[in-house]
């Protein structure tokens, strides 16, 4: 395993991880050594966001009363400590909010321990992300929007009181809320945006509290940026660079500001692929990072510095890739890890609607919009300049993204998508040759998702069995250690894509190959699978949130009694199992998994025909 990790992750990564581990051990053994990493900062200004509050208010007041009430309901509950977490569930942190509490396990993290003494994973406490969720202060954005709709000062009062209470209850560097520089960055952004909206109401005490919040959060980012930059290289890297930009500007550190922007361009060129892919291999995290760039674009109005032309082109391509993988509902396949993060929920659109982010990024990078006017336009008002811009007429069509390993086949009313990569960075799910089928706004065959990083369920649904692909009994596509370390990365060969067909082969280092050919037909799709390797049986999976009925030589899929498709199978034993999928973090739903099982002796062949209604 060690040799494989060194080959795939690189010697530099391994050394940096060892150095970081040594740092944590040193801090725990000799706390005084933390002074080595701490930087002195002096915040001098906080007027970072230049928002057109009047235009945002006008937009919000044009929403239907039902949609306005939705914003007000979330804000009103947050006043009382009931936070909408992960865009999916209500979490009651109490009133006043207990910033160190998990409403799921009803356990507290130790608030008197310094951040490096608090473990990432702890059975009794549970998922640390639940504790972090309230302290992101995302609900401050709901306070701001509710105030713009109603003019009611109770939302400002809640912002002011909770900000003061958070600082009192979270002295730096104690407690779980200082474990992560990304969390500190998001906390700064949300508080600064809300402070801008409430500017006509704020007091000297509010101003001092914002100064202090920026100071302690910036100190955290500076002290631990090595980890985000050298050890993980993902959305954390970009969010913490954003934190460096914010902190440097607020401290009038011109040298630090210039350095942060240079680093941002370098990381963008390293983590975004030319065809629009993102090396974290997750559509949710790709959206997360694009939202960070929305913020960076906005604060560029104050810093006077913009990202490079090459970075802009990469972001544009990233938005277009996801646009081509998008359903008419605004949703995309639930590809890769999904931690429920919609870091700036600044529209009334659902968490699964990606239009607001793709539209905003495309507009910021090109001066054109992707969609006609809609509720998703609110996000562009927060991060753009508010000018009227034309719609780019971009057709969705069968597309190959060879560098990223995404392939779509479009049909009248929907599309099929499959993934096949030779990974350039750490994978997150074992989803090679998974098929995601969308028809008339319905995700007929779906990805299982993530649920929670601290759950037993994620250990199942993130592996091969959680995807619509083939699995040799007892063998995974890749190997995994702990929550995130995947090694023995799968590779691909013989990949071909045309307007109506796809073919390619997954090579598992665990001793098998899976070749899949997909042909679009008048009625739907034909799939021809061949699995080669040592194994007794091979299983082929079809996960669907809809009703399933087994019929002779296949199965049928129904939605409320209406037939969606028929799948004809050449041969094999068909079993309908209960399974789970998670579209939202910490929310799961029972679905059906159709399993077609065949015996194999060095090779297994199977053909499917999907006819859509």
TrEMBL record:
Residues 73-306 form the Heparin-sulfate lyase N-terminal domain. Keywords: Lyase, Periplasm, Signal. GO terms for molecular function: lyase activity. It is found in: Periplasm. InterPro entries: Chondroitin_lyas, Hepar_II_III_C, Hepar_II_III_N. It comes from the Bacteria. Pfam families: Hepar_II_III_C (PF07940), Hepar_II_III_N (PF16889). Its main location: periplasm. The keyword Ion transport does not apply. Residues 396-557 form the Heparinase II/III-like C-terminal domain. GO terms for cellular component: periplasmic space. The keyword Acetylation does not apply. This is Heparinase II/III N-terminus.
